[in-house]
């Protein structure tokens, strides 16, 4: 089955700097890669996702890149702000009529220091 | 639309007891997935239901079971609770034929 590795497990950055979180996956059939943000005591919320037919996707200060050959994808957050502090999870699934579950990485705790 | 809701939000049980958790998906969402979240293991998939049928099951013992009703609401049951079952149990729903999952706030289960 699919296995998703996520690094680093913790990340501290100064406000205004960029943050990068990396994930690798094992199943070459995976074609859907969402990223979730979970603030303390709250539910995971989707912040961006990418499908395997796209190499990069941006949404304001957030971007995700995908390298299908190397089987890795990354989350980039630019101009970090204190409210970006949270745990970020990557996930992967093989989307084929919706019958493959999401497999999550173990999360990255991002701290943005003001 | 209202978001995914879960009840109860907090639960304290003792070893050997059983527990039932409930999840109400977003209106129109027919798929409900359940996840166990622990500090050490992260988010682990339990099972997914679609139109009252279990579509996928994760690698959990048979003590963990679930079901879905005709209105898409779902319940999960854990029997013979163990200390290691203490976790945040999250459910997520999605629209038919769409990948995006929306999570509920979770039920925090503590087993003493």
Q: What letter string, H or E per element, gives the SSE order of chain A?
A: EEEEEEEEEEE
Strand content of chain B: over 45%
SS content category of chain A: mainly beta
Overall radius of gyration of chain B: 13 Å
Unreliably modeled segments of chain B: none
**DSSP helix fraction of chain B:** under 10%
Explain the layout of strands and helices:
The complex is a heterodimer of chains A (114) and B (112).
Chain A: E1 4-7, E2 10-14, E3 19-25, E4 32-38, E5 45-51, E6 56-59, E7 62-67, E8 72-77, E9 86-92, E10 103-104, E11 108-113
Parallel strand pairs in A: 2-11
Antiparallel strand pairs in A: 1-3, 3-8, 4-5, 4-9, 6-7, 7-8, 9-10, 9-11
Chain B: E1 5-7, E2 10-13, E3 19-24, E4 31-38, E5 42-50, E6 53-57, E7 64-68, E8 74-78, E9 87-94, E10 102-103, E11 107-111
Parallel strand pairs in B: 2-11
Antiparallel strand pairs in B: 1-3, 3-8, 4-5, 4-9, 5-6, 7-8, 9-10, 9-11
Structure explained in plain terms:
The complex is a heterodimer of chains A (114) and B (112). In chain A, strands 2, 4, 5, 9, 10 and 11 form a 6-stranded mixed sheet that branches. In chain A, strand 6 and strand 7 form a beta hairpin. Chain A is mainly β and 114 residues long. Helices cover 0% and strands 54% of the residues of chain A. The mean pLDDT of chain A is 94. Chain A starts with a strand and ends with a strand. In chain B, strands 2, 4, 5, 6, 9, 10 and 11 form a 7-stranded mixed sheet that branches. Chain B has a 4-stranded antiparallel sheet with strand order 1-3-8-7, with no helix packed on it. In chain B, strand 4 and strand 5 form a beta hairpin. The mean pLDDT of chain B is 95. At the A-B interface, strand 4, strand 5 and strand 10 of A face strand 4, strand 5 and strand 10 of B.
């Amino acid at each position: 089955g699919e296995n998703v590795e996520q690094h680093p497990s913790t990340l501290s950055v100064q406000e205004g700097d960029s943050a990068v979180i990396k994930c690798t996956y094992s199943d070459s059939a995976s074609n859907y890669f969402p990223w979730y943000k979970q603030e303390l005591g709250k539910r995971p919320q989707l912040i961006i996702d990418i499908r395997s037919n796209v190499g990069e996707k941006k949404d304001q200060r957030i971007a995700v890149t995908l390298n299908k050959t190397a089987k890795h994808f990354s989350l980039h957050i630019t101009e970090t702000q204190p409210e970006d502090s949270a745990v970020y999870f990557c996930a992967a699934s093989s989307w084929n009529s919706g019958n493959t579950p999401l497999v999550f990485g173990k999360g990255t705790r991002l701290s943005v220091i003001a | 639309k209202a978001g995914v809701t879960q009840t109860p939000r907090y639960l304290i049980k003792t070893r050997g007891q059983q527990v039932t958790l409930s999840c109400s998906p977003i209106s129109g969402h027919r798929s409900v997935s359940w996840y166990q979240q622990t500090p050490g293991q992260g988010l682990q998939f339990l099972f997914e239901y679609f139109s009252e049928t279990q579509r996928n099951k994760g690698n959990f013992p048979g003590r963990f079971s679930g079901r879905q009703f005709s209105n898409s609401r779902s319940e999960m049951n854990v029997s013979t609770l163990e200390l290691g079952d203490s976790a945040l149990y999250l459910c997520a729903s999605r629209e038919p034929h769409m990948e995006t999952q929306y999570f509920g706030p979770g039920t925090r289960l503590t087993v003493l």
